[in-house]
Design brief:
single chain, 2 helices, 31% helix, globular
Length: 80
């Protein structure tokens, strides 16, 4: 098993919010994907957006620009 990889994880109060994030990121070319919320954090819905940690500023700018509601933004280590 390799070294863990750090990801920027955004949680949402609803599945609709998570899906809105996916749509906004795809349209803006922001990298990432929807994944189940890691056990180490909790969220209002079971899905979150995971992006490379290097894309965190892009993710934060998109959230503000699109007025997307979040539960939180985290840096999480994932096993490879």
């Amino acid at each position: 098993m390799g070294n863990p990889v750090e990801r920027c994880v955004v949680t949402f109060p609803s599945t609709t919010g998570a899906m809105g994030m996916e749509q906004a990121c795809r349209a803006a070319g922001v990298p990432g994907r929807l994944i189940p919320v890691p056990r180490s954090i909790t969220a209002g819905c079971g899905m979150c957006w995971a992006a490379p940690v290097e894309a965190r500023s892009q993710v934060e700018e998109l959230l503000m620009r699109e007025h997307l509601e979040t539960d939180g933004i985290y840096s999480i280590l994932f096993p490879r």
